[in-house]
Amino acid sequence: MKKFNTLKKNYEFKRVLNKGKYYYGKYIQFFIIKNNRGINRIGIAVSSKIAGAVKRNKIKRLIRENYRIFIKDKILKGYDFIFVWNKNKNPDEANYYEIKKDFDNIFKRTGILINEKNINKNDSNI
Q: What is the CA radius of gyration of the chain?
């Protein structure tokens, strides 16, 4: 399986959480900030108060898989993302399709999906 570029350090997470823009869905809270590196990096946070390690890791796997399949090649480059599981939602409700719906809704609002309008706008900035 191909590895992703990830946020690993505490200061990287803090930067995105404090200065980034916030979007929310039914299950996922989403933070985004431009990183000026030309690559996308992701971070996933699930509180230990939500569930045990097995369920937390399942949620992380589902989020990673949705990012890999649905979003990775459809978004503009140069951003840091953090996906945070909503603490009010039961982790047993987590499934691939519910998270996919959240991704659809969130990324439509962010304006970083690649389409003709974004491609033409970015080409004019070069």
A: 15
